[in-house]
Design brief:
- This protein is mostly helical.
- Among the domains are: 100 residues, no CATH class; 59 residues, no CATH class; 55 residues, no CATH class.
- The chain has 14 helices and two strands; from the N terminus they run ααααααααααααααββ.
- Strands 1-2 form a two-stranded antiparallel ribbon.
- 26% of the residues are buried.
- The model has no long low-confidence stretch (mean pLDDT 74).
């Protein structure tokens, strides 16, 4: 029953979410714009269903690990909240509404994002990947996050302002109660930064203490979290424009990929590929910034130089494009070497060790010296527990081990 329960929860919640997207699109469609909105809503529902499915897989295989249940609650909760919002929106369709309980549906949809997105994400940071806090000392942090999320949810649920132009808050207090609700709402805004810092600190502490498989799992999750922070942070810091929009999209995609990275890491799927992913991200990220800066700089410089000769900027753009294309390979090689030397020292040292061994191999004739050298190379590049070399002599029935 324990293995089937996650799938039962997932199937119920996802069916409601996807059905709500279909109904909203069918009823509210009056043209291509509404159809596009409906398709977007359907993609949100399907994305949440994918997160819920991954959570169901983890929860069914590792029922004692809280990470799977958090992912399941996140995916199913988003779908259920979406279904409630869709019901409230349907009541506004001319000729269809009002519907029974539409005001209460809008009220539920107004505060569910706080425990779902804010609360579950914070606990995902704190409990990943073992499903437990980093240590007993972190219990106070867990209680702090739980209390903060509860207070924020209550504050939004009791907000005296209208939910949206169509609905008022059915439980909004009046008089002194309204003033108290506004004060609570303002106070809970101050709790968001400490909660985020606490969740991030738990992840950092666990990453510094981790070894082996757990460290690889944390690398996957931390990688996705860093991309979220860089994307959304860059988008908020940049002036409005295409670059800021692109950074925001990258941040949102990484945010959607955060629970996916968590689920795959707990399942240990392609766990050790994360080093390659991080390496390529650093290399091509730095390469994009370098070549982009070089391209813009060369275009501006050539335009200034060639302005007396030519009236247009086509020549400057063409020359700059050819120059950047020619710089691609050497710049990538230099950046790759720098990244390996700074962040992947073992890979850099291994490459240099193999290169030096290849040079010695062309000039060394003594078999015993070559055998000892080969054992040293294997030890330095792969760092095994022990090394032994088996050699075959001229006599096919005779063999010997040169050393360990």
């Amino acid at each position: 029953m324990t293995a089937r329960l996650p799938w039962l929860i997932f199937a119920t919640g996802s069916a409601l979410g996807v059905s709500a997207a279909v109904v909203v699109t069918a009823v509210g469609w009056t043209g291509p714009a509404e159809l596009l909105i409906g398709v977007g809503l359907a993609l949100v529902g399907l994305g949440a269903a994918a997160i819920g499915a991954l959570g169901a897989v983890v929860a069914s295989r590792l029922p004692r690990n809280a990470v799977g249940w958090i992912l399941l609650a996140l995916g199913v909760g988003i779908d259920l909240a979406f279904a409630v919002d869709a019901y409230a929106e349907l009541s506004l369709v001319e000729g269809l509404g009002p519907l029974p309980g539409d005001e209460w549906a809008a009220w539920v949809g107004s505060w569910t994002s706080i425990p779902l997105i804010f609360g579950l994400t914070a606990f995902l940071f704190m409990l990943f990947p073992t499903g437990r806090l980093p240590s007993r000392r972190w219990r106070w942090a867990g209680w702090f996050v739980a209390v903060a999320v509860t207070l924020a949810t209550v504050a939004v649920a009791l907000a005296p302002d209208e939910i949206n132009p169509a609905f008022d808050n059915p439980v909004a207090p009046t008089g002194q109660g309204a003033e108290l609700a506004r004060w609570l709402l303002d106070a809970t805004d101050l709790l968001a930064p400490p909660v985020l810092v606490t969740a991030a600190a738990a992840l950092v502490v666990r990453l510094r203490r981790s070894r082996g498989v757990e460290r690889q799992q944390l690398k996957w999750f931390t990688y996705a979290a860093v991309i979220v922070g860089v994307g959304l942070g860059a988008a908020s810091a940049m002036p409005a424009g295409p670059v800021a929009d692109a950074a925001f999209v990258v941040g949102l995609l990484a945010l959607a990929g955060l629970p996916v990275a968590a689920g795959l890491a707990v399942l240990r799927y392609r766990l050790y590929d994360i080093d390659v992913v991080i390496n390529k991200t650093l290399v091509y990220g730095a390469l994009t910034v370098t070549l982009g800066t070089a391209y813009l700089g060369s275009v501006l410089l050539l335009q200034l130089v060639l302005r007396p000769v030519t009236q247009g900027s086509g020549l400057a753009v063409a020359v700059s494009t050819l120059a950047v294309a020619g710089l691609f390979r050497p710049v990538r090689s230099r950046i790759q070497a720098g990244v390996d030397r700074r962040f992947f020292r073992h890979r850099y040292d291994a490459a240099r060790t193999l290169e030096a061994f290849g040079v010695r191999l062309r000039h060394e004739l003594d078999l015993q010296a070559l055998a000892a050298d080969l054992r040293n190379v294997v030890h330095d590049t792969m760092q095994p527990t022990n090394v032994s070399l088996w050699l075959r002599t001229d006599d096919r029935n005779d063999s010997r081990t040169t050393g360990q």
